[in-house]
Specification:
heterotrimer; A alpha/beta; B mainly alpha; C mainly alpha; A: alpha/beta; D-Maltodextrin-Binding Protein, domain 2; 10-stranded mixed β-sheet; 11 helices; about 20% strand; globular; B: mainly alpha; two-stranded antiparallel sheet
C-alpha cells in the first residue's frame, strides 16, 4: 500500500504540471466558478477481491459511466481486499482530500466497525450516493411444516434454541442482524436464537436445501430462483413494500412485524470532500442510474433502485447505525 | 434417447463458428493465467467478465467456462516445471510432477498431466450430462456433519503422506491446521491470532503458503546446493511407453470419478478433490511407497481429480443455482448479469444454454489437449535456462502472483517467511505435503464440526447416528489401522533386533 | 543443506517453545458468550497446542535415523556430490552466508516493490541476482532484467487488468 502512497506523492506533481499548462491556456480548474470536475482518472475501490459483490458493483458502475460518457476521465477499478473491507477503508481514509478516490460500500461498513474489526467507520467517510437495495428473505425448505412467518415465530417462541437458522455471515453481521431484528420485533428473545453461521449465502442456502437446517436468511437475489422453482418457501421479505421479483411473498410489516432490513449498496468518498466535489459525483451517479444498461443489470441481480443523495444517505447511515447498535445490544453482542 | 437429441442440439450450438472461436479464446486465456503462479481461475473469470458482457449469453458462458477449466488445466505446468503451483488445485500435482522434472522427465510429466486432465474433463462432462439432475440431490445431501466426516477422512491421509517419520509428518500437519485457523472465526466472528493486523483478518491465503513452502523453498534448496539437483532440461521427450500408459490409465480414471463426485459437493472443490485423489491413489497403488519421488500415477490422479472436480462443480451451479466455490460464485454472478438464472428451472427454461455449455466442454477438452501437447517441448525448454537466471525469475513470478492475488506487500513478507520455513523443513526432513493438507482440510473440518454441533445443540452423536458421517468416519478409522499396526510391528521388530544384537 | 540440519532435540525444543507461545495465545482468546456456542473459538487451538507439545516430546526422544533422509514425500534421493562444482552458483564459500545474501536480496526486493514500483524493483532485483549468481553473459542479463519486468507489467495491467505498483515511472 505504500506504493499507492508513493503514487499519490507523484501524482500531485504531474497534476500541478498539467494544471500549469491548462492555466496557461486559460482553461483554469473550475473551482472558482463553483463547479468541479475531475482532473485525473477516477479510481473506484472495491474493498474486496475481484468477483465479489463490491467488485461487481464497482466494475458495473465504471463500465456504465464510461460507456455513457458521463465522465470526461477514465474510471478505474482498484481491488483492496482484506479484513472484510478494513484494508480498503484504511486506504481511502489515508487519501483524505483526494476527490478522485471513491469506493463502493454496503452494510458491512456499519457491521465491521461495530465488531471492532476496523479503525474506521461510516462517519469517517463522505457519503456520496446510495444506489440500490436488495432485501432479505426468510426461507424454509419446501417440505417444512412451517408455512407462514407466524409458524416460524410460534416455533421460536416454544423453544428458540430448537430451530436452527442458517445465514451467510458471522454472528453480529448482516444475516444475523436481519434475523435477530425480525425476531425481536416479533417478540422472540433474539439472544436465544440458534443462528448457524456459514461462509456466504450460497453455503447457507445449500444447507437449507439439504434439510440440514430448519430455516435460513438470504438475499432476495440469491434465493429468487429457488423460491420460484418451489425448492424453498419464502415466509417473508424484509422490504417496506412487496418486491417486484417476489410478488407473492409478504413483507414483515404486512405481517405485523415492524422491521425492515436493506442490503443497500452505495458509493462513498474519502474524508474532507468539498460540496462541489460531492455535487459533481451525486449528479454523475444519478445520471448513471437513468441509463438503460444500469436498470437492466440491477434488475437481473434482484436489486431495487433506491437512490439517495449525499445528505439523505448520511442520515440513513446514522439511523441504521443506531438501529443496529440496539439490535446487537438485544442479542448481547455489543 | 432424449439426452442424445438434446446433446446433438447442444453440439449444433457449440459448433457455430462464433462459439468455437470463443471456446478457443477462453481455454487459451485460462491456460495462460493458470500457468502464472498465484493467479487462478477466480481472477481469470472476474477479468474476462467485461469482455463477456457484450456477448450472447450462451457464448459468454461457453467462454467463461472455458477460462475456468483452461486455468485448471494450465495450472499443472508451473507445478511440474518450477514446483510453483499455478493454482490451488494443482498443488498435489507438484508432489510427483516436480520430482519427475528433476529426473529429466519433465516432458513426460507434462504429457501425463495433459492426458489425465483430458480424461478427468471428459469423465466429468459425461457425468454432468447423464446424471446432473439426479446429482443435485446428492450435492445437497452433504451438510456440516457429512463434510466433517469427509474432511477427517481426508486428514487421515497425513500418515500416508508423512514419509518414514510419522511424528514429523504429524507436526507438519498440525502446523498446517494452525495456519488455517488464523483470521476471523466464521462461527463467532472472534479474531484468532491476527496480531491486530487487518491483513490477517481473512486468514492466510492458501496459495501464499504453497508458493512459499514449495517454490521459494526449492529456490533456497537449489542455492544451498549451488544450483545442482533441480529440474533437468534436455530430455524433453513426451512420448509415453505402453507400460506407462497402462500404469496411469486406472489412476486417471479413478481420479476422474472421485474428483467429479467431490466437485459436485458444494463444500469441497478442486483443491480438496486433487488431494483426495492423490492420497487415495497412494494408498491403493501397489507401488504407493514410491509416490513423492516421481511416480506418474501421482501426477495422473490429482490432475484427473482436479479437472473432474472443475466440471463437477457445474452440477450444483447449473442445477441448483448454488455456487460450490469462489470460482463458481463469480460465474454465478456473471450468469445473473447475462440474464441466465441457473437453478432448478434452467433445464426447462434455457435448455439451449445448458446443453450448449455441456457440448462446448467436450470441444474445449479436445482443444486444450491439442493446444497443449505441441507446446510441451516448448514449456520444458524453460528448464534449459541457466539456473543463475531461472532462480531469480522464479522469485519474481511468485512475488508477482501473490501480489496479483491480494495487492498487499504484507502478503509478500508472508511469502518470504513461508519460503524460509519451507527451506528449514526440507533441510530437516519435515515433509511439506501434510502441512498443505492440514491447511486445506483443517479449517474446513473445524468449521463444519462447529456448524454441525451448533445445529444439533451441542449433541456429538450427530456424527455417528447419521449414515453418511458414520460411514466416512468409519472409513477414516479403518484407513488408519494398517499404519498403526505397521508402526507397532516395526517397533516390535526393532526391539527384537536390539535384543538379539547383544545376545550375539 | 547439511548446515541447516539440526538434531531432533534442538528441533523438538524449538517446536515445544512455539507450542507454548501458541498455547499462551490460545488461552488469551476470549470465550464467546453472547450466543450459545457448543465449541468455543479457542477449543481447537488449545487442543492443537497440546498435540504439538506432545509431538515435540516424541521427537525429542527419537533417535536420528539416517534412513529417513530424503525419503519423505516431496523429496527425492538425488543429493549430488558437491564436488562436481563446475557451474556452482554464487560467490561465497559458506553456504549459510550465501543464503543469507539471497534472502536479504529477496527482502530488499519486497521492501522496494511498492516504493520503487514493480518494473524498477524487479529489474534491479533480476539484474543484481543474476549477476551475483555468476551468470557470465552480461548483455543477456541486462536484456532479461529489462524485458521481463516490462512484459510482465504490460501483460498484467493491460491484458489482465491487474494493476501492479508503478512507482515513480509515469505509466
Amino acid at each position: 500500500m505504500s506504493g499507492t502512497r508513493a503514487r499519490a506523492r507523484a501524482v500531485p506533481a504531474v497534476f500541478a504540471a498539467s494544471a500549469l499548462v491548462l492555466a496557461g491556456c486559460g482553461a483554469e480548474g473550475a473551482s472558482d466558478s463553483g463547479e468541479w470536475s475531475p482532473q485525473q482518472p477516477i479510481e473506484i475501490t472495491a474493498p474486496a477481491d475481484t468477483g465479489g459483490g463490491w467488485d461487481t458493483l464497482a466494475r458495473t458502475s465504471s463500465r456504465i459511466m464510461e460507456d455513457a460518457g458521463l465522465v470526461d476521465q477514465s474510471v478505474q477499478v482498484v481491488n483492496k481486499p482484506g479484513g472484510g473491507g478494513a484494508i480498503g477503508w484504511s486506504y481511502i481514509a489515508n487519501n483524505a482530500g483526494d476527490p478522485h478516490k471513491l469506493f463502493v460500500t454496503s452494510p458491512p461498513i456499519l457491521f465491521v466497525p461495530l465488531a471492532g474489526e476496523s479503525d474506521y467507520d461510516h462517519s469517517d467517510f463522505t457519503p456520496i450516493s446510495r444506489l440500490a437495495t436488495e432485501y432479505m428473505t426468510y426461507l424454509v425448505p419446501a417440505d417444512s411444516p412451517m408455512d407462514t412467518f407466524d409458524d416460524l415465530v410460534g416455533e421460536l417462541e416454544d423453544d428458540p434454541g430448537a430451530v436452527s437458522v442458517a445465514g451467510g455471515s458471522a454472528p453480529g453481521s448482516m444475516d444475523h442482524v436481519a434475523l435477530a431484528g425480525a425476531a425481536d420485533a416479533a417478540g422472540v428473545d433474539a439472544g436465544e436464537l440458534n443462528y448457524v453461521a456459514f461462509d456466504g449465502g450460497g453455503e447457507a442456502t445449500t444447507a437449507l436445501l439439504g434439510g440440514h437446517v430448519d430455516a435460513a436468511v438470504s438475499g432476495a437475489g440469491e434465493s429468487m430462483e429457488l423460491i420460484e422453482a418451489g425448492e424453498v418457501k419464502a415466509l417473508a421479505v424484509s422490504a417496506p413494500e412487496r418486491v417486484g421479483v417476489l410478488p407473492d411473498v409478504p413483507t414483515l410489516t404486512e405481517l405485523g412485524v415492524d422491521f425492515t432490513f436493506d442490503i443497500w449498496r452505495g458509493v462513498m468518498g474519502p474524508p474532507d470532500m468539498s460540496q462541489e466535489e460531492i455535487s459533481y459525483y451525486e449528479s454523475v451517479f444519478a445520471e448513471m442510474m437513468e441509463q438503460d444498461s444500469w436498470k437492466e443489470e440491477s434488475s437481473k441481480l434482484g436489486w431495487t433502485d433506491t437512490y439517495q443523495d449525499s445528505a439523505e444517505f448520511e442520515a440513513f447511515l446514522d439511523e441504521k447505525h443506531t438501529e443496529f447498535v440496539d439490535i446487537l445490544d438485544e442479542v448481547g453482542l455489543q | 434417447m432424449d439426452t442424445l437429441t438434446q446433446l446433438v442440439s447442444g453440439f449444433s450450438v457449440a459448433l457455430s463458428p462464433e462459439n468455437l472461436l470463443f471456446v478457443f479464446v477462453g481455454v487459451l486465456a485460462g491456460t495462460i493465467i493458470g500457468i502464472l503462479p498465484g493467479l487462478g481461475p477466480m481472477t481469470a473469470i472476474a477479468l474476462m467478465i467485461p469482455i463477456a458482457f457484450g456477448m450472447d449469453p450462451t457464448t459468454a458462458i461457453i467462454m467463461l467456462a472455458g477460462v475456468y477449466y483452461g486455468a485448471v488445466f494450465g495450472g499443472s505446468t508451473s507445478s511440474i516445471l518450477l514446483n510453483a503451483p499455478g493454482i490451488a488445485g494443482t498443488v498435489a500435482t507438484s508432489f510427483d510432477g516436480y520430482p519427475m522434472a528433476r529426473d529429466g522427465r519433465a516432458g513426460k510429466a507434462l504429457a501425463v498431466a495433459a492426458i489425465a486432465s483430458f480424461v478427468g474433463g471428459t469423465v466429468g462432462v459425461v457425468g454432468l450430462m447423464l446424471i446432473a439432475p439426479t446429482l443435485s440431490k446428492v450435492a445437497v445431501s452433504f451438510g456440516p456433519a457429512e463434510y466433517f466426516g469427509l474432511m477427517v477422512l481426508g486428514l487421515t491421509a497425513v500418515v500416508s503422506l508423512a514419509g518414514k517419520n510419522v511424528t514429523k509428518g504429524l507436526i507438519s500437519a498440525v502446523v498446517g491446521v494452525i495456519i488455517a485457523l488464523v483470521g476471523i472465526d466464521s462461527a463467532t466472528g472472534t479474531l484468532r491470532f491476527t496480531f491486530d493486523r487487518p491483513e490477517l483478518y481473512e486468514g492466510i491465503d492458501f496459495l501464499i503458503v504453497a508458493l512459499g513452502v514449495f517454490a521459494l523453498a526449492e529456490v533456497f534448496v537449489l542455492l544451498s546446493r549451488r544450483g545442482h539437483g533441480g529440474a533437468q532440461g534436455g530430455v524433453t521427450s513426451l512420448r509415453l511407453s505402453k507400460r506407462e500408459v497402462r500404469a496411469m490409465t486406472p489412476s486417471a480414471l479413478r481420479g476422474s470419478v472421485l474428483g467429479f463426485f467431490t466437485g459436485v459437493l458444494p463444500g469441497a472443490g478442486a483443491t480438496v478433490a486433487s488431494f483426495l485423489s492423490y492420497s487415495t491413489e497412494k494408498r491403493i497403488a501397489s507401488d504407493g511407497d514410491t509416490f513423492g519421488s516421481g511416480n506418474i500415477k501421482g501426477v495422473a490422479a490429482p490432475e484427473a481429480g482436479n479437472n473432474g472436480a472443475a466440471i463437477g462443480s457445474f452440477v450444483p451451479l447449473l442445477t441448483l443455482g448454488v455456487p460450490g466455490s469462489g470460482t463458481t460464485a463469480i460465474l454465478l454472478g456473471a450468469l445473473l448479469v447475462l440474464g441466465v438464472q441457473p437453478g432448478p428451472m434452467m433445464l426447462e427454461q434455457h435448455p439451449g444454454v445448458f446443453w450448449g455449455v455441456v457440448a462446448s466442454m467436450y470441444i474445449g477438452s479436445i482443444v486444450l489437449l491439442i493446444l497443449n501437447l505441441p507446446l510441451i517441448p516448448l514449456f520444458a525448454k524453460v528448464l534449459n535456462t541457466p539456473k543463475a537466471v531461472l532462480l531469480p525469475l522464479v522469485v519474481v513470478f511468485c512475488v508477482m502472483g501473490v501480489y496479483g492475488l491480494s495487492f498487499s506487500v504484507f502478503d509478500l513478507w508472508l511469502l518470504i517467511g513461508f519460503g524460509v520455513l519451507g527451506f528449514l523443513m526440507r533441510a530437516n526432513s519435515f515433509p511439506a505435503a501434510p502441512l498443505i493438507l492440514g491447511l486445506i482440510l483443517g479449517g474446513l473440518m473445524e468449521r463444519n464440526m462447529r456448524q454441525a454441533l451448533q445445529i444439533s445443540g451441542g449433541d456429538w452423536s450427530v456424527f455417528v447416528t447419521q449414515p453418511i458421517p458414520a460411514v466416512l468416519l468409519g472409513l477414516a478409522a479403518a484407513s488408519l489401522l494398517p499404519t498403526v499396526i505397521g508402526l507397532i510391528r516395526r517397533r516390535r521388530e526393532r526391539a527384537d533386533r536390539e535384543r538379539e544384537v547383544p545376545a550375539a | 543443506m547439511t548446515e541447516f540440519r539440526f538434531s531432533h532435540r534442538t528441533i523438538a525444543v524449538a517446536i515445544a517453545g512455539f507450542a507454548l507461545v501458541y498455547l499462551l495465545g490460545a488461552y488469551h482468546l476470549p470465550d464467546f458468550v453472547a450466543v450459545d456456542v457448543p465449541v468455543q473459538p479457542a477449543t481447537l487451538p488449545r487442543g492443537l497446542g497440546y498435540l504439538l507439545l506432545g509431538l515435540a516430546a516424541m521427537l525429542y526422544f527419537q533417535r536420528a535415523e539416517q534412513a529417513e533422509e530424503g525419503t519423505a514425500t516431496g523429496e527425492t534421493a538425488t543429493e549430488q556430490p558437491a564436488e562436481a562444482d563446475e557451474v556452482g552458483l554464487g560467490r561465497l564459500r559458506d553456504t549459510r552466508l550465501e543464503l543469507a545474501v539471497f534472502l536479504v536480496a529477496a527482502c530488499l526486493y519486497v521492501a522496494l516493490f511498492a516504493v520503487a514500483g514493480f518494473v524498477l524493483a524487479t529489474a534491479a532485483y533480476i539484474a543484481s541476482a543474476v549477476w551475483y549468481l555468476g551468470y557470465p553473459r552480461h548483455l543477456v542479463t541486462v536484456l532479461t532484467s529489462v524485458t521481463i519486468p516490462l512484459a510482465a507489467y504490460i501483460g498484467m495491467s493491460e491484458g489482465l487488468g491487474v494493476s501492479l505498483p508503478n512507482g515513480p515511472l509515469p505509466f
